[in-house]
């Protein structure tokens, strides 16, 4: 085991085979030159790393509740400010939140918004696995259009989730956040670079990281990098940054693969490959094309 | 030795004054009537450079208390203030704060809970959180709101449990009285420096706060919390004794008023006690053997001590400023629990008063003590 790689989050956690969350955590924390304190929302990352009396965290760590990781880190950061002024703390410390999409897009949105507006110095990392995966695959507002979840099942009257994903990047950007980026666990070097830039930012920064869930998206555990790659290669999940309001696209190809290539790798989209649901796939492709066009029109490549 | 520096202050301003002297490292707050005067006053202290506290103006009470949890776990002396819907919104995190054993201080102006909407005083909000693992101490008047808030901070840090320093919304929070204020230095010395056992900022000794505890360990955490609560009773007496040294004030589990030779004992807490004492005085002059017990410490509840104090009376009347809809009101239940092992039958009756800021007049209490009130509600 690579000791340098696992110095923040040690082996022995219980996350699923083929889960990218530990890789995301290690990649992000690995870019911090300074000591880190982590706040974690309830979810996969938390339940797989902190089963008492064990912990996989080799850094100070706090899990408060589901919806308040950003508020929690606000308190930690202000305590740091207070105690530093009094000379009780000396070192520079980075504050990092890890939360799933449920804890970010849905139940934790208000807490995140408040912390961003107040301008605390922290990096918020959302690992986006497109729904409530820890509780067995229920829909969140990050679940993609057309996806099967236990609360958006397909049936005679349904093709899965009937609504589009919430655009969390634009919501975070609207707070005037200096640096935010969309990344993908399958593009490690890009993720690390973004983590480094985020950690160097004064005030709040935000990373939205694509995190394929082998258990509930239903694909073989060996395939999570492949599924992640296809998400970007089809333009379903573009890699980009927003720095001081300017968009920078980090990966592009002249011939993106059809979105079908990505959809067909996962059981959650299986029902779309029927005659009846053909228009749904067409709609997904249209949407991907439209969003990509929108992005490249305002971005530098 | 005893400072007699008096200021005319409302309960809210008295609590703010105590907080100024405590000078928490972090205050995380959100406005709500009738607590707002506390955080407005404190914000002015900060604006005037009188305190070095870092303030978090949260976007909700839920986030205000969540940030308190973060700050306290990071080793900061931490406080907040709230009321009513705010405390209800915090409910989830109240349990997390106590489960993590974080000594957070909350100044409370107790208020009714909606619906219908009502901004006035009663005890419904704090009674709703009586099982959340927080210490709870009640004030009768602005002076006690001041004294209790200082004592509360110290007690919380002694036993690693969060605490609510409670006054009645409006009746106390907005009622101005002369309040004896201690010298800043005395308060600071009384509290001493807060030195937490573990802190998130001690990165060289990393600790995991808020783990997942399963069937094999969760139960023990909860038993430990209960033990800390029990220990808090003794620590409360010790802290009160230390506070007496600097203030001359006696703060007990409860206060007995004309109770030693009483045949009928009234039990209540909060701002109505002053009125009830007047009623007792007048009835005593008429030769009626009544007395009262004012509860100060509601969590942990001093069961054995209260039973002793109620041993000799024949009748107990409990006045609650909250309901427990579907069963008997909370303070009544505590009193019944406390006296259950006393020998001899006692008549114990329960009345509810003051919901949503309804006034409780002396005449009503006198009527009650003279046996003239038939209904359960003192409306």
Break the fold down into its secondary structure elements and pairings.
The complex is a heterodimer of chains A (301) and B (379).
Chain A: H1 21-30, E1 36-40, H2 44-47, E2 61-63, H3 69-85, E3 94-100, H4 102-106, H5 109-118, E4 123-128, E5 154-155, E6 158-159, H6 168-173, E7 179-184, H7 188-200, E8 205-210, H8 214-217, H9 224-233, E9 240-243, E10 246-249, H10 259-263, H11 278-298, E11 299-300
Parallel strand pairs in A: 1-2, 1-3, 3-4, 4-8, 7-8, 10-11
Antiparallel strand pairs in A: 5-6, 7-9, 9-10
Helix pairs in contact in A: 1-7, 3-5
Chain B: E1 5-10, H1 11-22, E2 26-29, H2 36-47, E3 54-57, H3 61-73, E4 78-82, H4 84-99, E5 105-110, H5 124-128, E6 135-138, H6 142-159, E7 163-168, E8 176-181, H7 184-191, E9 208-209, H8 218-247, E10 254-257, E11 264-268, H9 272-285, E12 290-295, E13 297-299, H10 303-309, E14 315-320, H11 330-339, E15 347-353, H12 362-369, E16 377-378
Parallel strand pairs in B: 2-3, 2-4, 4-5, 5-7, 6-7, 11-12, 11-14, 14-15, 15-16
Antiparallel strand pairs in B: 1-8, 6-13, 10-12
Helix pairs in contact in B: 1-2, 1-6, 3-4, 6-8, 9-12, 10-11
Describe the 3D structure:
The complex is a heterodimer of chains A (301) and B (379). Chain A is α/β, with parallel strands linked by helices. Chain A is built from 11 helices and 11 strands. Chain A has a single domain (21-300), classed as Rossmann fold. Chain A has helices at 21-30, 44-47, 69-85, 102-106, 109-118, 168-173, 188-200, 214-217, 224-233, 259-263, 278-298; strands spanning 36-40, 61-63, 94-100, 123-128, 154-155, 158-159, 179-184, 205-210, 240-243, 246-249, 299-300. A 9-stranded mixed beta sheet of chain A has the order 2-1-3-4-8-7-9-10-11, with helices on both faces. Chain B is an alpha/beta fold and 379 residues long. Chain B folds into 2 domains: 5-247, 3-Layer(aba) Sandwich (Rossmann fold), CATH 3.40.50; 254-378, 3-Layer(aba) Sandwich (Rossmann fold). Helix content of chain B is 40%, strand content 20%. Chain B has helices at 11-22, 36-47, 61-73, 84-99, 124-128, 142-159, 184-191, 218-247, 272-285, 303-309, 330-339, 362-369, and strands at residues 5-10, 26-29, 54-57, 78-82, 105-110, 135-138, 163-168, 176-181, 208-209, 254-257, 264-268, 290-295, 297-299, 315-320, 347-353, 377-378. In chain B, α4 links the parallel β4 (78-82) and β5 (105-110). In chain B, α1 packs across α2, α1 (11-22) runs parallel beside α6 and α6 crosses α8. The longest helix of chain B is centred in the middle third of the chain and has 30 residues, at 218-247. Chain B is globular and about 65 Å long. Chain B starts with a strand and ends with a strand.
């Amino acid at each position: 085991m690579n000791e340098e790689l696992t110095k923040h989050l040690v082996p022995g956690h219980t996350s699923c085979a083929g889960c990218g969350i530990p890789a995301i955590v290690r990649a992000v924390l690995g870019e911090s030159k300074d000591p880190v304190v982590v706040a974690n929302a309830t979810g996969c990352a938390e339940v797989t790393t902190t089963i008492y009396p064990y912990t996989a965290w080799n850094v100070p760590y706090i899990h408060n509740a589901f919806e308040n990781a950003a508020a929690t880190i606000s308190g930690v950061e202000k305590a740091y400010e207070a105690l530093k002024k009094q000379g009780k703390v000396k070192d520079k410390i980075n504050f990092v939140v890890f939360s799933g999409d449920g804890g970010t897009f849905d139940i934790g949105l208000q807490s995140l918004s408040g912390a961003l507006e107040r301008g605390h110095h922290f990096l918020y990392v959302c690992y986006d696995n497109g729904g409530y995966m820890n509780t067995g695959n229920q829909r969140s507002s990050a679940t993609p259009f057309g996806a099967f979840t236990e609360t958006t099942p397909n049936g005679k009257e349904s093709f899965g989730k009937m609504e589009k994903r919430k655009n969390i990047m634009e919501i975070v950007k609207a707070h005037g956040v200096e640096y935010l980026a969309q990344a993908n666990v399958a593009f490690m070097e890009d993720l690390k670079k973004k983590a480094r830039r985020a950690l160097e930012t004064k005030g709040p920064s935000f990373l939205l990281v694509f995190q394929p869930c082998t258990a509930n998206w239903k694909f073989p555990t060996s395939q999570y990098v492949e599924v992640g790659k296809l998400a970007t290669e089809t333009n379903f999940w573009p890699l980009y940054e927003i720095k001081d309001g300017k968009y920078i696209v980090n990966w592009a190809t002249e011939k993106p693969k059809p979105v079908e290539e990505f959809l067909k790798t996962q059981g959650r989209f299986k029902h779309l490959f029927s005659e009846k649901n053909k228009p749904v796939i067409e709609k997904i492709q249209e949407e991907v094309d439209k969003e990509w066009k929108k992005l490249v029109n305002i971005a530098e490549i | 030795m005893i400072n007699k520096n008096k200021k005319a202050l409302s309960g809210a301003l008295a609590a703010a004054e105590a907080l100024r002297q405590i000078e928490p490292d972090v205050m995380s707050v959100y406005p709500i009537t009738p607590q707002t005067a506390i955080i407005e006053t404190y914000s002015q202290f900060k604006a005037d450079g009188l305190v070095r506290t870092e303030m978090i103006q949260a976007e909700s009470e839920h986030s205000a208390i969540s940030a308190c949890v973060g700050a306290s776990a990071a080793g900061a002396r931490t406080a907040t203030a709230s009321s009513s819907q705010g405390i209800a919104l915090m409910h989830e995190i109240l349990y997390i704060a106590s489960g993590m054993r974080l000594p957070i201080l909350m100044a409370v102006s107790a208020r009714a809970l909606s619906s219908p909407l009502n901004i006035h005083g009663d005890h419904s909000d704090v009674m709703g959180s009586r099982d959340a693992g927080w210490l709870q101490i009640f004030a009768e008047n602005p002076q006690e709101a001041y004294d209790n808030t200082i004592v509360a901070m110290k007690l919380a840090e002694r036993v690693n449990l969060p605490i609510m320093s409670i006054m009645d919304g409006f009746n106390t929070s907005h009622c101005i009285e002369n309040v004896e204020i201690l010298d800043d230095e005395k308060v600071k010395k009384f509290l001493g420096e807060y030195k937490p056992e573990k802190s998130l900022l001690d990165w060289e000794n990393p600790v995991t706060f808020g783990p997942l505890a399963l069937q094999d360990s969760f139960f023990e955490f909860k038993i430990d919390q209960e033990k800390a609560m029990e220990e808090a009773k003794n620590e409360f007496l010790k802290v009160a004794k230390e506070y007496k040294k600097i203030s001359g004030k006696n703060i007990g589990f409860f206060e007995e008023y004309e109770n030693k030779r009483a045949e009928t004992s009234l039990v209540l807490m909060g701002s109505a006690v002053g009125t009830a004492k007047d009623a007792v005085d007048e009835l005593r002059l008429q030769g009626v053997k009544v007395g009262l017990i004012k509860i100060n410490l509601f969590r942990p509840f001093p069961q054995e001590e209260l039973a002793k104090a109620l041993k000799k009376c024949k009748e107990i009347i409990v006045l609650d400023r909250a309901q427990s809809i579907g069963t008997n009101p909370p303070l009544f239940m505590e009193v019944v629990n406390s006296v259950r092992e006393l020998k001899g039958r006692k008549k114990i009756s329960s009345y509810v008063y003051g919901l949503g800021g309804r006034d409780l007049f002396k005449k009503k209490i006198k009527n009650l003590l003279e046996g003239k009130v038939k209904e359960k509600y003192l409306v």
